Amino acid sequence: MIPTTVFVAGGSGYIGRCLIPSLLERNLKVKALVRPGSEGKIPAGCLKVSGNALDRNTYQDSIQPSDTFIHLVGVSHPSPSKRNEFQRVD
């Protein structure tokens, strides 16, 4: 079965912004989790879900109904100086 609805956590990030247009071109319904203030980074045609990726209570009710969940949340450019952030997020 081909998924018809895809939920993308990290939709406004580097990979999410590249992936979402490809999903939309395939006529999939796409919902993207974005930080408040980053909604403008999400392409038209995608449902924007404003929330905090580290607090499921801010978005978990918006996931369903979705056939696929893509998790793209992470620490960019991990380094020793970001050790605590990396362990908390990734």
Explain the overall architecture:
- This protein has a four-stranded parallel sheet with strand order 3-2-1-4, covered by helices on one side.
- The protein has one domain: Rossmann fold (3-Layer(aba) Sandwich).
- By secondary structure, the chain is an alpha/beta fold.
- It is built from three helices and four strands, in the order βαββαβα.
- Strand 1, helix 1 and strand 2 form a beta-alpha-beta unit.
- Helix content is 26%, strand content 21%.
- The mean pLDDT is 85.
- It starts with a strand and ends with a helix.
List keywords for this structure.
90 residues, 4 strands, alpha/beta, 26% helix, Rossmann fold
Map the helices and strands.
Layout: E1 5-9, H1 14-25, E2 29-34, E3 47-50, H2 60-63, E4 68-71, H3 83-89
Parallel strand pairs: 1-2, 1-4, 2-3
What's this model, at a glance?
The protein has helices at 14-25, 60-63, 83-89; strands spanning 5-9, 29-34, 47-50, 68-71.
The dominant shape is globular
Mean of pLDDT: 85
CATH superfamily annotation = NAD(P)-binding Rossmann-like Domain
CATH class wording = Alpha Beta
Number of helices: 3
What class, by secondary structure content?
alpha/beta
Q: What is the fold-level CATH name, i.e. the topology?
A: Rossmann fold
* Low-pLDDT residue intervals, each spanning 5 or more residues: none
Q: How many domains?
A: 1
Question: What's the SSE pattern?
Answer: EHEEHEH
| Quantity of strands, as a count | 4
User: How many angstroms separate the termini?
Assistant: 30 Å
What is the percent of helical residues?
25-40%
Backbone CA Rg:
13 Å
Strand content: 15-25%
Outline the biggest β-sheet.
Answer: 4 strands, parallel
